[in-house]
Every structure is written in structure tokens, then in C-alpha cells.
Amino acid sequence: MHTTILQLLVGLSLLPLIRIYVVYRRDNKNNYVKTFRIVDGNEIDGTSDTDGIDVTTAHLGPAFPHGVFIAQDGANNGNQNFKLVPLQLIFPEAANSRETTQKLGYQQQACENLL
């Protein structure tokens, strides 16, 4: 079964206790697609808890040419902040086309520490 990136992204949710994001299809069965995490990097920490997530498939310049996934991170030393993840890191297929309606096929898989 095929679906579009945009249809998948609206089906994103967060499981806060284990700090993973889950992608589901938005059809009548809501099948699982994948899980991913935003983990600590060299300069920025991963997400710990969040009050919200959002996504766009719009071209946002050279840093986010295929869109961006945004997660508010509420557990930091000092102020809260937002984590911005290039969409093609979550969905590598997004880099193959600028079309937001590109047809994509997925198999069930878990992606520990994808990011």
C-alpha cells in the first residue's frame, strides 16, 4: 500500500516515557510505519519531553530543502528550546523528490537511534 509523506507525517505521535516518535498511516487501519528518536549530538541534546511537535514538507532553504520536523524540548539546563530535524533524515525518500505528493511504500520497521 502506498501513501504520501504528508499523510504519514500527520500521523506522528510521541511516546514520552521512552522518548520515541511513532509514525502511523492515516488510512482506516492506522498501521505502524516506523519509530525514531532525536538523540544527543555533539553540540545539542536530544529531546527529553515535549509539549508539541510539528512538521512541514515545504522547501525551507538549504538547511531544510525537503521540509523539517520540529519538536519542543522541555527538559534542558536553562531555557526550553526546539529541535529541528531535516525531514530527509526521518524519511530518506523525501530527498528523492520535491513533490509532497510523492508515492512512498513502507514496511514495518523499528529505527532505533535514527537521528
Give a description of the structure.
This protein has about 120 residues and is mainly beta. It has one domain. The protein is about 10% helix and about 30% strand. The strands form three sheets. It has a three-stranded antiparallel sheet, with no helix packed on it. Strand 2 and strand 3 form a beta hairpin. The protein starts with a strand and ends in a 10-residue tail after the last strand. The C terminus is likely disordered.
Distance N to C terminus: 26 Å
- Beta-strand share of residues: 25-35%
Integer-rounded radius of gyration: 14 Å
Number of strands: 8
* Overall SS class: mainly beta
Our count of domains comes out at: 1
Spans of at least 5 consecutive residues whose pLDDT stays below 50 are 98-115
> Residue share in helices?
under 10%
